[in-house]
Amino acid sequence: MGHDDLDQNTKSGSLKETQILSKPATLETDSVLVGRFKIQSLQGCGRFGCVYKATDLQLDSNVAIKVLHQHLVSEASLRVFKNEILTLRQLSHPNIVRVHEYYEDEHIHFITMDWIQGDTLKDWIEQHTVTEETLNDFTGQILSALEVTESKAISHKDLKPENILIDNNQHLYIADFGIASAVGDKASAVITGTPLYSPPEYLESGKSVASIDIYAFGLILYELITKKLPYHAQTQEELIKEKLSSQKVKFEKRFTRYEKLVQRCIAPLADSRPKTASEARKLIDASQDKGMSRQSKLTAISVATVLLALIASGLYFFRADNLGGKKLIGAKQLIEAQQEGVQSLAVLPFDTKSAEAWLIDGLPHLLSDELSQISDLRIVGYERSRETMDLLGYQTPLDEQKLKVISDLTQSTYLLNTKLVPIGPNRYQVNAELIRVAGNTVETSDIIQFQSNKESLAQEFSSLVVAVNEQFGLESLDTELYLPQGVHLETISEVEVLLKNGEDARAKELLEKLLNSEAEYSKGWLLLGQLEASIGSILEAESAFQKAVETSPQNSLVRNQAQAELQLLAGDIDSAIETYRSILQRLPNNSDIRLELAQLLIQQQSLETAKQELITVVESDENHPIAWYELSKVAIWQGETQEAVDNYLVKALVTAKKLKNTQLQGDVLNAFGVAHHRLGQLDLALDYYKQGLTDRKKVNDSRGIVTSLSNLASVYAVKGEYQQAEQNLLQALETNKSRNDAVKQADLFNELGVIAEEQGLYSKALEHFQSSLSIRMKLDDDWLKAESLNNVAYIFFLLSDEEQATIYWEQAKAYYEKVDDPVGVVRVNENMAQLELQKGNWQSAYRMYQSALEKSEELNLTEETIVAQAYLAKIAFLQGNFEQPPLQLNDIKTELKDRQDVRGQVEFGLWLTDWSISTGAYQQAESILAELMPLMEQEKNRSQQLIYNTLASRLSLYQGDDLPIASNQEFEQVTSKAALESLVLQLEALLFSNTMQEGASDKFLVVSQEFDQYDLDLHRYFLLRKLILLGYYHAQSGDDEALKTVLDQLTMLKRGVGTYWRNYQIERLESIYYGMIKNSEKARESALKALKSFTELKQQLPEQQQQHIISLQGRYFSADQSKDDFFMEQVNDKE
């Protein structure tokens, strides 16, 4: 792939490149970054980094990778760089190389981009002579790309032929758009761009100008045509002097149409250059049009004459129908409205010197409501326009540049500007003008003016609505008045302000007072109903909504909204959705209604339909302040997280930055964190959560701060950084106190419980979970109750309190089923399956896990699927399948490693270690333990640490080492499972020591009795193991009666547990017993059964592992007593 900085022969002092002072370190071929990108070859290195061709192993496709030079990397620069990359990812254009993502692999920082097979335009110029047709084509492609980037306020800053790629079809791709800006000035001590293609003022000051890319574009055209640049300087100082001198551009005849364009593009003064790519394109078109024939000119003059005649006849003036004598000021009818389909009109805040709230807030709001009734016009209401202006710091009156910005941000070609001037006591002059913004052109047309007194001003504004409707050449409009005659605008305005500020009680008081005297005010009844519903006064809300229906016109927006509210109160969300659909049939361009419909569809879990409604919103309004954000959330809920990251969230962030909306930016950055968290990219998630937290703190968004801190804690917990996680949650709890938010308080206690549980601090976890449950049981949210009940149950399970665990799990399952949450049901079932397996009921556990797996795969639940697969593998291993389960579990562990799930890696790594030791794979066990060691330091879970130490000691014991036996070992804050595993090891060590005569015999019985403090009915596999070892102890002691007692217990236990791979040990003990009582026939019969079972197990294993487990069998029974062990006799004979 050709690239901007692939000239590897750059010499010191060359003006073509800023030299890299030291040779950069490069990556080795076939090395893999972040476990995904396999390096194929180095393409070259330049000022910013080295470019490689690589294979994306996940997508099985080629990508280009740019690895940043280390001297450009710092914490501050990376923060800027990542934000810029987010902006660059919005550039989706056929002539721009798409930037995919930023990654970090230890000290390597890189971005991935589209791979383009071809050369650089620099190479092409050297090898070809451009034709007129090719030049026209190349020019069009480059300008097309620049027009898109200008619309996104992005500059390349290093545009040159080396940065333009060309494929075999002569398709151009501009590479490294904005990389120079993203990296910043560290790439060069003087400038960011390449000197030869940079304008002189940039070389002098280093400050970017709007025409920087246009300047470079002109020089690229010059070079395409002449194969050289118009400079001869050897130093940068000389180059600046040449650039400041006017260049007389002269091309051969076939390229003369480009002379004026290039002359303007490379003009010494920035003001003399085209301001935009569109203006540059017009210069080319103008040069082409110079040669048009005389007939063409006469035709144009004739058309102009006709148009003037039409204007003189009054046909282009506003029709005065239905305006009640209002004076119209020659309002030019904008016929583009008929030609261009649906148009957009933004209602600007009134241009008035008055400070009265009803004029500057109430009346514009009313006007927006009435204009929203125009079905064929997309109305951007006053509230959004005002919010946009407030965020940007704009105030009326607006100059042309600010009007262009508002037009772009609201995606409105037309702006309604209303000037209201007091002309006497309670009397006003109103002048309304329609502003059309098209590119750099701003046209203003007066459409209506009138005078009115205060009492009738609101009603007079209906004529403005009619005027707007007529102005766009739309069908006649029956205006809907939201205010009946006499309603006081000052009160309405105060209500609107109170609602905006969250002062609901005062707003309700004023509304009730107003409606007592103005009972026909339908919009007031609707607002009152919404207020009553928000505080839970359902009957009062129903009454208010019914009044709104009764007092509003048939099929009016207020009536439809009130009907939908009544349907929602009745729990009939389907009917409410249909009501909103009927509104959109009449008002298809009402984005606010469509957004509300999307929210209802989300509540109904109709995510795909909601997504389509939101897409409809952004198709007409790409800068909508909410829709992109909502789209990203829907995509994440649908499992399309990568799409959310690559598309919707990027556009939401760009919109937030355009609007300078710090609140929205914080929300979007937090959503980026959620997405990367779900994708398992924890470092990226942390980064975005921190950025979101910073923005939320700037605007004192306490709710957002609490959420960000909670999200950070969840990532730190997964990474095993529990102290940091707990610190974040405690900060969140403190911040939440002032909010008096019981729901969030319960959530935070719940998260603290999770962190304590993951560290093995079960008593502390139970305390936190019970605090959360106590709060949630008082709330009207059954799902939260279910979650807390499930968590409390699980801690009781870990503490071996089966009765409490079962009680709480049954309650949790009932609540999950009540709220129809299949995910919650799956989780409870998996937890209860653990209890069944631990009790030895593997058949029941198998059925439960198999069902959970099928449901998890159906619902696309990653974690639940992993859990079910792991436990099904465990059940298979317990039954004696030594081949497939370890492979399956290893695959799961690898997946968890990719997801950076430390706890999961440790848990299943310990399983694998145990299985490896049991099957004689000692070298593999050593390798896994070494791999787990750094993770154990992160995890800090006491139970897992004890199991780790136990397994490491067992490995040494099985390899022939003697172990020191701990005395009176205490197991505080660990699970019963961890304690029992340690006790089993102690029995094994004592049994293998062959020193029963030296006091180990008594110690064995002491340790055996320590099992009694645990409920072994909940741990039947541990009971089996204990009894087997106790049986060998009695065999070694020659106590056949005690052995018979143990065998009777084992026989009963075996019937309950069923198939278990260690059952051959029971058959072997039976053989030893019969040998001790001199029943050789039954001894041999039992020995052959044991041998058959043992042989089936070991034949699954490689030779070395077979030898290991055979050697281990000899340590259970001392050599001098082998005469009674027909099993070992048979094993040795086989060998």
Structural write-up:
With 1135 residues, this protein is α+β, with helices and mostly antiparallel strands. Among the domains are: 83 residues, Phosphorylase Kinase, domain 1; 171 residues, Orthogonal Bundle (Transferase(Phosphotransferase), domain 1); 130 residues, Rossmann fold (3-Layer(aba) Sandwich), CATH 3.40.50.10070; 102 residues, Serine Threonine Protein Phosphatase 5, Tetratricopeptide repeat (Alpha Horseshoe), CATH 1.25.40; 118 residues, Tetratricopeptide repeat domain (Serine Threonine Protein Phosphatase 5, Tetratricopeptide repeat); 162 residues. It has a six-stranded antiparallel beta sheet with strand order 1-2-3-4-6-5, covered by helices on one side. A five-stranded mixed beta sheet has the order 11-10-12-13-14. A hairpin with a 3-residue loop joins strand 1 and strand 2. Helix 28 runs antiparallel to helix 29, helix 33 runs parallel beside helix 35 and helix 37 runs antiparallel to helix 38. It is flat, with a radius of gyration of 39 Å.
